[in-house]
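User: Fold both of these, please.

Assistant: Here is the first one.
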Amino acid sequence: MVRAFPTIRRRLVEIPAGLAEVPPLLARILAARGMSGAEELDLSLNRLPHPRQFGGLEQAVALLLQARREHWRVCVVGDYDADGATATAVMVKGLQQLGFVRPDYLVPDRFEYGYGLSPAIVDLARERYQPYLLITVDNGIASIDGVAAARAAGLRVLITDHHLPGDTLPDADAILNPRLCDEGFPAANLAGVGVAFYVLMALQSALELRGRVVDLLDLVALGTVADVVVLDGANRILVEQGLRRLRAGQGSPGVRALLRVAGRDPARVVAADLGFAAGPRLNAAGRLSDMSHGIECLLAESDAEAERHAQELDTINRERRGIEQGMREAAMAEVARLTGPTPPALCLHGDDWHEGVVGILASRVKEALNRPVIAFAPARQQGLLKGSGRSIPGLHLRDVLDAVATGHPGLLQKFGGHAMAAGLTLERRHLAEFTSAFQAAVAAQADEDVFLDVIDTDGELGELDITLANAELLSHRFPWGQGFPPPRFDGVFEVLNHRVVGERHLKLTLGLPAAGAAVDGIFFNAPVADLPTRIQRVEGVYRLEVNEFRGQRNPQLLFEYLQVV
């Protein structure tokens, strides 16, 4: 039942006149992603949608101006993922830069308190910090009871969030959420850290200060990429500006340290390094330990302090990988026992699985099967399960869970999330009932072709185009990510040499006869036991990337799918 080689669908469109000045290879790729004009190539900050277009921002700024003027004690309430951690660091640092006494911060322990501003978190904040103003980042839009508890205790509340609101909004002093804006606001896909940055930009403008919060853009870039939000025009600008600061030797010591412990050079950082190197190490703290470890890394003011925190996070991430490997083996063994056609969705459960790692597990199984997957682990509260799900393009996971909750009242204790990722809590005894309801809801909402194993590519890449210059161009000209996928190509190649490295990765030397050259290729996690002894030709889907080894930089084909032909 493991995913086979997919059907290839090429994104080939006519290049619009507005991209005529762009190198032809890049123009072809951008046109396939909907770009049509030269103005979209400009990723400067002055092209960000202006804060005045963000509904609710005036009330938020007025509240913060009063807090600054009257010296209110402030506590930032964050979330335990990378978006929440970066948003917390951005808000703490930004307010301090804009004249506030350094705010306190609090991130709920996911295992004890769960997600969001709950009455228990309000009590904890009051006990520890005695704040007068609570500012949520990356959470709060569904915290009806928590905001009510804060207001009853005489606290003021500012909510900054980007999650979908429910039918009822909390009774906060101000709420800032792009999902509440009119459709005309062109930055509807901001991550939580992006919303926090917009608050600070508007506050800086109101204070008639210049150029301070831009120092936080590397944190904004990290949180935006790690949260896998759609890289629309606004998010591409935020990410690109953060990357440029890092490449220029600027940015926070914490982000630079996270990149270095992952073996990435900040001077050559790309968006994928934030998503696959820095982000997982930051997330590991919230998955297995306490996200305050990650936030302290981001708040570090010296390289030495940041390095200590980053090394600690790297150690936690190694532990996370070991736990994940055992869970993945158990999950795939469970999948292998399934008979008949692949169901429209899967629910997997392990009595010894770790609650903080089930999201990664769901993602891995989803990638292997091209099906939405929810993985469950026992919660700390007896009799409950915590589930984390990942979806596939064309299927909105939170909407599916909403349909289940509507059709089966009382089945879910709570749920929330996005199109591609969501979480939920239910009673262990209801797992079978939920699995059936979830699969039925997926089948009802899925289009006929959503489960077809099709992968989009940018067509074949001519042998003369497989160069280091093009690999550099495609890596660094734009930040690629969710909704703006990195360039991938397909082709058939002659194999000059091949070997297995690291026990499960296939290293290839591929001939380019038209160019009179050869190029290296790598296919990670290859089914090495099923490979023939001699391989003469392969067909694959790949990305053209730069491989740096012992000071030498060369083009390399990084295969996402590969089969012997």
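And the second sequence with its predicted structure:
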Amino acid sequence: MENLEEHTTIHIQVPVTGMTCAACALSVEKVLKKQEGVENCAVNFANETVQLTIDGDKTSIEKLQSKVQSVGYDLILPSDDTRTQVEAYKTQKHDSLKRSAIGSAILGIPVSILGMFFMNEPWVPWVSWILSTPVVFYFGKNFFFNAWKQALHGSANMDTLVAASTGVAYFFSVFTTLFPEFWHHRGLHAHIYFEASAIVIVFVLIGKLLEENAKSNTSSAIKKLIGFQPKTVWLIVNGEEQQVPIDEVRVGDRVVVKPGERIAVDGKVLFGHSFVDESMISGEPIPVEKSKGTKVFSGTINQQGTLKFLAEKVGSETLLSQIIKRVQEAQGSKAPIQKLVDKIASVFVPVVLGIAIVTFISWMVFDGTNAFSYALITSVSVLVIACPCALGLATPTAIMVGIGKAAEEGMLIKDAESLELAHRLDTIVLDKTGTLTEGKPSVKDSFGLEDSHIVDLFVSIEQASSHPLAQAIIPFLKEKNSKNQTLSHFENVVGKGVKAVLEETTYFLGSVKWMRELGIYQENQLYHHWQNLGYTTVFLANEKEILAGIALEDTIKPDAKKAISTLQEAGIEIVMLTGDNHKTAQKVAFELGITQFKAEVLPSDKSKIVREFQQKGNVVGMVGDGINDSEALAQADVSIAMSKGSDVAMDVAKITLISDQLIKISEVINLSKRTQSIIQQNLFWAFIYNIIGIPIAAGVLFPINGFLMNPMLAGAAMAFSSVSVVTNSLRLKK
């Protein structure tokens, strides 16, 4: 664990266990914020973590853990096996919820059927009692445990309301089953409400299971990123290669990486030549040539030759580790929507409990003959009718239908927040390579290939070359019916190109820069035009002149221009980011009608740019496809990945476009607008239902017309409100 004594201010993210709702997160946050030495605190219920900024001289994680434990929760202290502990906790929690949801449904649904269709049968109360008891006190025991823990510390959450309503309905039904004459002697019908207590437990458990399934995916991106870190590394020790665990690598060690292996730490090449796939860092599809003096980065893949390099950054200091850290921080930051949930949860529960208590007392004080009977029935009715089913279903049902509709249209949406937020987007940041473009180079232009001998020579040298651009050039040349020639000599000139000899004539194949060094390059309008267009160029020359040339470019996607103009027409500001050079970026931006773009940006630059827009008050969407986009995707308010991109990008992003059609971004925003409208309608009816239903359940109409709602009618009203909310949500399917 990090030694807090050595620092004044510590920033740390710690897993929290025992939380069951947004109100729990609020409770943990309140407790921590009260402690001396806690400068800042944000609890995220979605990924069950707390981000802390603490003064190490005034407090410690151990002290804070003790305070959190005192209110019924816990912190998992940082250690070597923290990740293992967290995974074990989440697995156990998910499995327990799954067993409880299935078990409660098996027993609870028959109770509900009996209560609706066989209510007048004399045996029904006894069978319902038998079936509902394990539902309430075994499968639903955590609601009562959590409510009790909250009560001990003078607070309440949704568990409190569920426990109170189901517990009172259950014990009321037990009393009625055992002593029906108590009600008969007072002129009241002895009705039982086992079905209300059981089915509420079933609904809530199923909802929690669905929620847990959604939350469990948030850590998969981090797992994949961590998977890019090799477990072992080859070091040169006393002149010999020796394989050691990555934890033993220190700055200054000499590291060997062989073809096909991932580079373990950041460093500088001492010896060797190879091409390294750095797409996870730069986002660019073409592997980067490495030779003496060039930098290499952890997690990238060495494709060909063996490299020996000096370790410069190890452990948490490597570029990959920094990406992992920033993704974790961005995922753990608190979403605005959660603050609204906190407020509703913190007010709704105590208000309803208070109304039920006031109702009971009022009847006991102001009614005469049947005071206790009326007080009990009305207070139970208040708790049952106010059980937050409609309120709880208002958002998730709309989201579930909206997400299902999106999937049918080729858009995978991972969470409610993104679908809710997408309609508010006013800025969209797009990665260039693989998002706006196809992500692989293709031949755009050429010259000097009319002569079949030149074509044969060109393809012969490219086939002998190991350069990645050859993979795009060879198919193009073979379409010209080229024939392979036998080279008498072939030499790879590091960082420049290749040198070959055919029939005693020396040829050079490489970049403009090399042609200039050889004194072969002559100013040419076509070459200049290619440079202005930002093309990547490859020239074939003999010792006197350039014979042929090929220009390559990453192709813009067919629907990109239409997609961009549609977003711009909707008033959304478009910003393009790329690790590519300025001229190439400028060309793509111009063709797509994008006025804001930034070239030669690193992964941390992308997330920083997103953050800068957010600090201005913008709601920012990020669209990307590579591992290098993961930081920015995690930082953005709404993150969208292309399905042909990296697994990590798709895991970090909350929305994945299955078809890779950019026009789907506009469709996501439109669906979000419709979904938000449905959510607002649902919340309106759920609140109106409570505003009207709770006073009636409390007996407000009794002095006027003698109407007194019994708990069964309250249960029916509760069910009707839930059905109306679900039915309204289903309109999204149209």
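Confidence is low (pLDDT under 50) at residues 1-7, 333-338.
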